[in-house]
Amino acid sequence: ATTLAINIAGTLARLGRPVVLVDLDLQLGAVPVSLNVRPERSLAEICREVDKARGAPLQTGLDRHASGLSFLAQGDRIEEIAEVTSDRLPRLFEALGRTYPYVVLDGMRDFGDHAVTAMDLAHMVLLVVTQDVPAVRAAGRALRLFRRLGFGPDRVRIVLNRYVKNAPVTLDA
User: Fold this and answer.
1) Which among 24, 32, 122, 121 is positioned nearest to 81, based on CA atoms?
2) I need a surface site. Which of 28, 43, 117, 142 has the fewest CB within 10 A?
3) Is 52 helix (H, G, I), strand (E, B) or coil?
4) What is this structure's pTM?
5) How would you classify residue 53: left for phi > 0, otherwise alpha for psi between -120 and 50, otherwise beta?
6) pLDDT digits (tens, 9 = 90+) for 66-90
7) How far is CA 126 from CA 7, 44, 45, in A?
8) What are the residues whose beta carbons fall under 8 Å from the beta carbon of 3, sequence distance 6 or more?
9) What distance in Å separates the CA atoms of residue 69 and residue 10, rounded to the nearest whole number?
10) Are 80 and 74 in contact (CB under 8 A)?
11) How far apart are CA 134 and CA 138, in angstroms?
């Protein structure tokens, strides 16, 4: 999922679209590791800045990869994790949306407060699945939860990662 998020955001950046990639896995986010960078700024720091700005645009830039992709991750600053609360996320994404028409999120591996808040704000949710029995069963459970949360097929898309013609689970399944 992280590789797909990075590639989607990277492709948008290469096409000249303003995009930011946000890693919401606050403890073990893989975006900085995958990009081989150490974040200078943290999600908590940006949340504090957004709170102080009270609706004004962000005053300082986000981290950027050499490819031109902007990203935001908590990094190793785990002592600040408690500051990234789900009630701060709407203001954060609103502020990011003023500069970046495309905000790609990674790191939502559960249905916790952060993930549900982010999905409530999302225009589209991509559910990444592979062709193995545990992944398909987990995707089925996730789709049932999405429906219970009010996310219909207009907002949720399934992305099959690594199609294998002779896999134990067929594409139809």
Assistant:
1) 24
2) 28
3) helix
4) 0.85
5) alpha
6) 888 899 998 888 888 889 899 999 9
7) 14, 25, 27
8) 34
9) 6
10) yes
11) 6
